[in-house]
Amino acid sequence: MESVETLDDLLKKLLGAIPEVKSAAIVSAEGLPIASALPQGVDETRIAAMTAALLSLSERAIIEMAKGSFDQLYIRGSNGYLLVMQAGPNAVLTVSTTKEVRLGLILLDCRRTCEKIAQLI
């Protein structure tokens, strides 16, 4: 019998596969938390709301600049990256990494995770 992978399983697998990934969350486009693997003390509701705000602004900027539809956003901070990626029509994946992460590798793994999320939601 084949086991069904849950959203929590997908997040755990992503965090386990790449040590530089420190946290991840799946949120709705409206800013509601769906699943998360966040550090202790981080408010998942606040992260979900901020992710939705980033998504909304990114979508508007992409439309305004005639660049098609939103796919991904990455923000580089002094201590790492924050990635926001569309995961189907109803969800967004946000991932926090250290600054040592190999960006190409994490973008590829996140894209694969987004495809699986889209199938589950």
Q: Count up the helices.
A: 3
> Strand content of the residues, in percent?
25-35%
CATH superfamily: Dynein light chain 2a, cytoplasmic
- The ordered string of helix (H) and strand (E) elements is HEEHEEEH
What integer is the average pLDDT?
A: 91
Shape: globular
Rg from alpha-carbon coordinates: 14 Å
Can you identify the CATH class? Alpha Beta
Quick rundown:
This protein has 121 residues and is of the alpha+beta class.
Topology of this protein?
Blueprint: H1 7-17, E1 21-28, E2 33-37, H2 44-64, E3 72-77, E4 80-86, E5 91-97, H3 103-120
Helix pairs in contact: 1-3
Walkthrough of the structure:
The chain is of the alpha+beta class. Helices cover 41% and strands 27% of the residues. It has a five-stranded antiparallel sheet, sandwiched between helices. A hairpin with a 4-residue loop joins strand 4 and strand 5. The radius of gyration is 14 Å and the shape is globular.
